[in-house]
Amino acid sequence: MENEDKEECIFCEELVDIHDVECPHCGKKPFSGMYLNPKTYDNADQMEKDCDIKGAWKLLHDEYRQHTDIEYFDEETAGILHDYLEALYTRHAELLVVEKIDLLLGGLQIGAYWGHYDDSLVEQAIELAQSVERPDLELKILENHRSNQQALSKGYGPFDSDNLDQRIQELKNILSSN
Length: 178
Ligand SMILES: [Zn+2]
Description:
Largest sheet: 2 strands, antiparallel
Number of domains: 3
Number of strands: 2
Number of helices: 7
Strand order of the largest sheet: 1-2
Bound molecules: zinc ion
Order of helices and strands: EEHHHHHHH
Strand content: under 5%
């Protein structure tokens, strides 16, 4: 039972002693939540009680972003932080529309990177932008969506749609000049 006190490092998936605070294989902190300040949730609760809603959001959202970094993706902790953000939004929706859109855009970008893109989040974000009459945000959402689509299509070959259009035009030019 040599592996009894070992668990997989969430970053490199090598087995690591559960008491280790640094993975001997990849040098990162090997287990979920080890990069999170344990007081984060209490601090966010306190800020909310003090009516600093945007401050509480920023604290949780900054941590969420760090835990969804491509290099340091801690799915479990990110999920908990995401639940906290959703709950905070539910309690203070009118104050946090722009922040919520930002969270949705972040989720879409992550989805595009990992190949599970959820179009319904785009619709949700657009509805929110329209509800507060922010065409600038609606444009930002659509531009983000387009670049996510291009990132996704790169997984299926060398041509995203723009490159493809461009190459087709080049070939037409070459053929017509002969
Ligand atoms: Zn590791």
